[in-house]
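User: Hi! I'm a student and our assignment asks us to look at how structure tokens line up with a sequence. Could you show me two examples?

Assistant: Happy to help. In each example below, the sequence comes first and the structure tokens follow. Example one:
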Amino acid sequence: MPARPGAAVVVIQHLAPEHESNMAEIISRHTEMPVEQAANGMQVERDHVYVIPPGVSLQITSGTLCVSEPKAARWARLPVDLFFRSLAEDLEQQSVCIVLSGTGTDGTLGLRAIKEKGGLTIVQDPKEAAYDGMPRSAIGTAAVDLVLAVRDMPEAIRNYFSQPYVNGRTTGLPPGERLEDVLDRDLAAGEDRYLPKARTWPADSIVPESQRMAAPDEPTDTVIFVVDDDEATRNAWRSLLQDKGFPVRAFATAEAFLDAYEPGTPGCLVTDVVLPGMNGLELQSRLREIGATIPVIVATAHQELRIAARAVLAGAIEVADLKSLYEELTPREQEIMALIVQGCANKEVGFRLGISQRTVEGHRAQIMRKMKAHSFADLVRMGEALDIARDTARRP
């Protein structure tokens, strides 16, 4: 890392309580940044390195490190997940997480949390990792932005923090204020300078000019196809994209798009999920059937269709088929699958459910077979599509 990367670095290790860590001393030999062991109440400063002490849990809140006694049993502790989750909540898009060499799945759920908050997620290339368990588990979430060799990570981080989306240097954005706060205040005052004229949009859906896609350097033949039954939405997409120099063709139904579309035409498809007649997911399936390779972006404001949207991202099988497979599992198998998707190891699953580890392994094999999952990563993506971890957490 450069001497002044413009960010703080926090190093989380798996350390036994009785283990005396020399990590701070070791790191200090390889950087000009100050390196110190994290302490409770320590204010995080840019261009400093902080190392987790042995046998503790570490989180960050309002830019302050919080050191505490671990609550989970020693074998069930996930210090990387715990810190990543707190980082996601505290810094949102200004957070960057890196999963390095290690065994197990720690870091996987925390990485997903950072991705959901708009941060950057990086994983060490498993080919160069001494232990590839943690990198491969993280990659299996499909929430990883970059898989890199360690030597390439500093440049990627530097590039990320130079983006207006991250550093807040957006046109017209007052220093120290978040875009969301400015929009809320302007909307309350009746100002609409950020809003498309075709329709009044909720504040959290608006992207300012400085954060939108860059215009092509030269005129392009690439066509952006938009399928949405709402005329105002089509007009908003057309205005945004044409303003950036992209040719746009908009359609009210999937059937109208298919009638006009010529496979092989360079471009991209943006479609809603809920459409009259053929819906967005069926349209995507139809394109696969005819051999069309056009990239598809599914954009929807219908919260009740979260499962469908997740399934599109998880890609592999239709939602109805996935739900049908899941319903074939026994209640015990559904419990075990939910815990596995949450990142619990077989031993922890057994401990929580009061059964032996061998019994868990037997159930897990049955779950893989019934769900037609080819790998653990497949099973995690299926669980994400079904949202079973969230549903399980809601149960009393």
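Example two works the same way, sequence first and then tokens:
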Amino acid sequence: MPAERPEPAVGPNFGRAVKRLLQARENTLGRRRSDHKEVLAIVRSHHRLARKQLDPARGAGMRHLSVEELEKRRREPDLAELVPAIRQALEDGDDSQVITVHDPAGWVLWRLGSVTALGIADALGLVEGACWREDAVGTNAAGTALIERCGLLCIANEHYVAAHHPFSCAAAPLYDAWDQRRLLGILNVTTLKKNVHANTLTMVELAARLVPSQARKAHEDKLTPLREVALLTLHRFGTPVVLTDGCGHVVESRRIARKHQLLPLPTQVRDQPFDYPLLGGRWVVEPFMAGWLWRPAGAGSLPATRVELDVREHTRWSLTVHKAGTSMSYDLSKRYVEILFLLAWSPAGRTSAELVQDVYGGATTTETVRSLFSRMRKEFGRELFHSEPYRFRDHLDVMLNKPDDLAELLPFSTAPAIRRIRADSAGLMDACAPSTTERGEC
């Protein structure tokens, strides 16, 4: 192992590893950069992989999709429609630069680059159909950005596996422009170590924000015929009404106080009323051309009977609310999933003051917690939570789907309460995670 490579960040080595990486970055990039949060993410990644005893010489071995499975994943429209815009946004890179697009499970679905760049990528194993999750190939920008859910630059020896040290990579999440909590995949740029520069990550992050916005604009243009019909039709209704396309993208609405961009349908709702917290009250949908027409069906609401929180995956977390005859699933942000997990983990509940310590390490006020619950009630349902202490309502059946190994729980999280749960499961002090003042949230 090269001497300059950071040690796995266990116990007191954490601070030393962070300082070493910060200094190495300053030396490599030629000027001081705001790299603290990236370095924290990389050292946490090294800690996770060292605990798993991943081989720093070879990783876990490269895994590949079958040709059939690769083509099946490529046919998913949300990510596929971004590829032409990605090519256009990043086509002017150096000859050794390879661009890869990964799905939320870490599989490389597309790669772009010159003949020279693709030859380098072949030698690295960065090929279409390969798995570049962190637990397969060690710390790398794409795999670790999937876990951290933020942009990441990984330079040379910051990679966990020695074979990757001659390279540098930068990656950023690709989010659905209609729903910023929905992760579509990862945009990654890999080049030789000598070609990395201070603006590499900025370039990738800008492209990752721009490309989904362009895709949304193109989708909105396709909705023009439906919107023209809506303008002629919806004014005839004397009640609030919403028209969406088949995927829930809002085309037009009338008499709706709060405008929304995306209204996903609950399951099993055709021809029957259902509760929809975002719009308030009960609604019914019916087919309308190539979309759905939403109309109110009364102001009352049915109580939820069961909630299911799924935190088994490293890169996607969901809350499903079940009511009579219907269920609704929500993708969760990092902060939402931390809070909801702690409520499910502690059925007796947590006060706002306790949650300030559990999640923020005391670095905010109770008003932040109250504001967060106000937003969750509007989105998920006002009947889900009691206050002070905050907890799920007593009548709810709460199902928590968690990892078999709690040391793998929400690996992005540096919330003190989550760190303690992981540390207790691992049987060690989780000194790898910084204090709240160092958290550098992405």
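Here is something you could point out in your write-up. The chain has three domains: 13-220, 224-296, 306-402.
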